[in-house]
Inverse folding.
């Protein structure tokens, strides 16, 4: 091949130098077909076909060239048989990557989080490549979702008979049909703080790496945090229509997923959602918010109270008051949260408010909610903000985009009105496990029950506060703040007013989690009816059920072509991880098949916290010229990244010994530290809190168990306040205290 190239150069009189190493690599790989490259070009070609058929987006008018020589090893240094096939299905791959890498691939212990569109394509590629097909290999896959009909158009491991089955189990069965040697542990546990006993330290420590196949940011961030903590590589990817991206997260060498901030999505202000909507998106957002608030959040809090009883009260109280009844430093904030929680609990458990036991009561509750949302609140708004109202500048208050609303009079013959009643009543019955409940959609059944419901007359209040979104006069915010003492007193009174658990006769509540894909569960029926009634209030164009589902369900368009392409690139990065791990070889990806645009980028290094001088202006208004300088010191002195840790592994020290360790090891002083236990940060020691000094002779684990007696872990992570000898604050990486 090299000889032919030199002859061609001489014949064509080319001036370029021949890269003989490149020619040799090309000669050795040209006859091989690799699954990741097929996946990439299949996605590109598939999208071009879609463009031709739909006449949408810009076609490719030039050649598409892609090389990934970064995945290759050094042929000259390999033994004679390294790249020779052995007569199995992986020979083409061995010819390109070598026997050694194929063996590593087969013995991989990998964790794939999610098994939807991305997961199915990754699974297929893994089976073709021989990932976890060796004696020591294992892919652990988890997805708590089940297969819906809408998944079948882009999740090709699933068929009609799989609808309703677990995604991870069905995908595992399909993939084993492609490659019977692959070893898979299929699970249905969501990866979250609640399942850290399932995905424990031993599980994470035994992994070679993680690949995400998720569709939401919160889950991605959590998996990223776990990978950073345990020092595991993460291959992250995502799609949105024709757009896709890949990010390689390599311990100590690249920025982690959470280290980047996506542009903030522009959301409508609260006042627009609640009082001044001007498009259907506002109406649907409020409908979904009300669904979550009533049927998930409030119902969940009430359910916890029914299950825990006095323990629920004690848990709430412990966040506000410490030993001896003193209000904790963050007790006021906790009291505000407690008041909000208790309002929801009382809404669910007080007779005449939200407590229901029969279907008739569910219908009556739904009818009262209709009147509250679409009549009474509108009447109050119009009363407080009349049509001729002026704003602070003297201009008409009801100027575009604001729309002047009108109240709705309930009409049982209107299908949208009845749609709200039917959905709300069914959902309420599901939450309260009403005896003998069966889903009902027959409007005549509800009309009979509605005939018995009496709705009281509403009288607007002159004292009602309406959030208009206008800026308040300077100083008015301070005058309106509630006194901290009264907030704590309100929490104390509210806790005392909670009805006794025994008075509910064993009532069990079942909070609902929003599920957009099940059209029989009344979730989208409620949100769609709510949004369209709200739209009628404000003369906004209504939408049909499918449009409501797309908007409120926040459905991100997914294309099989994009998914195929992006997972191909993920698998190429996996090969690079196994081949050499050289950061220069890795490539992040930004791609848009519609344009078409494909851009590979060198991964960004992890940001480093270093010692620095920070300048601040104490009084920028009156003395903008005056600046103060503050020295920021780091430990270690040369700085640290998110991947670094300070590990205290000296056994179960006392609190005093832990403080002394900082002085003896690093010549700094630990002036305070706390540990997050549950939802609260528990102070173990604070030089300004005399009550914490009683902890000094106690073992660290014993202090922890005062707050969590069931704790069985081997370490925890104290948040420490550190000062050097010059009283400068010292920034440190996360601290891990091991006591076992």
């Amino acid at each position: 091949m090299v000889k032919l190239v030199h002859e061609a150069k001489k014949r064509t009189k080319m001036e370029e130098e021949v890269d003989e190493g490149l020619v040799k690599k090309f000669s050795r790989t040209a006859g091989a077909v690799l699954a990741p490259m097929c996946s990439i070009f299949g996605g590109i070609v598939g999208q071009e076909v879609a463009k031709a058929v739909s006449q949408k987006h810009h076609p490719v008018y030039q050649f598409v060239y892609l090389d990934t020589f970064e995945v290759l090893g050094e042929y000259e240094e390999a033994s004679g048989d390294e790249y020779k096939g052995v007569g199995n299905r992986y020979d083409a791959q061995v010819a390109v990557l070598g026997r050694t890498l194929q063996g590593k691939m087969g013995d991989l212990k990998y964790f794939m989080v999610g098994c939807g569109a991305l997961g199915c394509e990754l699974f297929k590629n893994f089976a073709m490549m021989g990932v976890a097909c060796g004696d020591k290999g294992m892919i652990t896959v988890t997805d708590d979702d089940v297969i819906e009909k809408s998944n079948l158009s882009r999740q090709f491991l699933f068929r009609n008979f799989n609808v309703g089955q677990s995604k991870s189990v069905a995908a595992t069965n399909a993939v084993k049909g492609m490659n019977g040697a692959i070893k898979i542990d299929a699970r249905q546990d969501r990866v979250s703080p609640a399942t850290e006993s399932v995905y424990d330290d031993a599980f994470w420590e035994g992994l070679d790496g993680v690949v995400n196949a998720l569709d939401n940011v919160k889950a991605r961030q959590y998996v990223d945090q776990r990978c950073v903590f345990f020092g595991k590589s993460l291959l992250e990817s995502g799609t949105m229509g024709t757009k896709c991206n890949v990010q390689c997260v390599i311990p100590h060498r690249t920025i982690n997923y959470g280290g980047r901030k996506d542009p903030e999505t522009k959301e409508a202000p609260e006042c627009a959602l609640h009082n001044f909507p001007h498009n259907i998106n506002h109406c649907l957002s409020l409908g979904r918010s009300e669904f979550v608030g009533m049927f998930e959040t409030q119902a969940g809090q009430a359910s916890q109270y029914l299950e825990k009883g006095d323990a629920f009260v004690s848990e709430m109280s412990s966040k506000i008051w410490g030993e001896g009844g003193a209000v904790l430093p963050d007790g006021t904030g906790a009291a505000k949260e407690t008041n909000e929680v208790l309002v929801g609990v009382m809404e669910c458990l007080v007779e005449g408010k939200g407590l229901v036991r029969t279907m008739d009561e569910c219908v009556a509750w739904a009818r009262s909610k209709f009147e509250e949302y679409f009549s009474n609140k509108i009447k109050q708004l119009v009363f407080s903000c009349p049509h001729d109202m002026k704003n602070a500048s003297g201009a008409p208050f009801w100027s575009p985009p604001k729309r002047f609303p009108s109240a709705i009079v309930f009409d049982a013959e209107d299908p949208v009105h009845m749609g709200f009643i039917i959905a709300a009543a069914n959902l309420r019955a599901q939450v309260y496990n009403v005896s003998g409940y069966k889903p009902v959609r027959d409007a005549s059944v509800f009309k009979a029950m509605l005939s018995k419901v009496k709705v009281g007359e509403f009288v607007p209040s002159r004292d009602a506060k309406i959030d208009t979104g206008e800026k308040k006069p300077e100083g008015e915010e301070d005058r309106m703040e509630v006194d901290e003492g009264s907030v704590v007193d309100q929490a104390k009174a509210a806790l005392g007013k909670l009805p006794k658990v025994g008075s509910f006769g064993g009532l069990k509540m079942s909070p609902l989690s929003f599920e957009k894909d099940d059209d029989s569960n009344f979730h989208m029926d409620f949100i769609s009816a709510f949004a369209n009634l709200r739209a009628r209030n404000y003369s906004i164009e209504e939408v049909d059920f499918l449009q409501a589902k797309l908007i409120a369900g926040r459905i991100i368009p997914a294309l099989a072509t994009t998914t195929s392409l992006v997972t191909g690139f993920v698998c190429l990065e996996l090969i690079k991880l196994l081949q050499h791990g050289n950061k220069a070889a890795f490539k992040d990806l930004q791609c848009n098949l519609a344009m078409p645009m494909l851009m590979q980028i060198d991964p960004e290094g992890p940001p480093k916290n270093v010692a620095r001088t920070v300048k601040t202006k104490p009084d920028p208004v009156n003395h903008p010229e005056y600046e103060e300088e503050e020295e920021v010191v780091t430990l270690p002195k040369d700085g640290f990244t998110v991947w670094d840790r300070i590990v205290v592994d000296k056994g179960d020290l006392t609190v005093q010994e832990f403080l002394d360790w900082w002085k003896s090891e690093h010549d700094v002083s630990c002036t305070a530290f706390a540990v997050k236990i549950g939802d609260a940060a528990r102070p173990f020691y604070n030089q300004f809190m005399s009550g914490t000094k009683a902890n000094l002779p106690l073992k660290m684990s014993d202090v922890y168990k005062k707050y969590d007696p069931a704790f069985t872990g081997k370490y925890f992570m104290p948040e420490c306040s550190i000062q050097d000898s010059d009283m400068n604050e010292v920034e440190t990486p996360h601290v891990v205290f091991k006591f076992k």
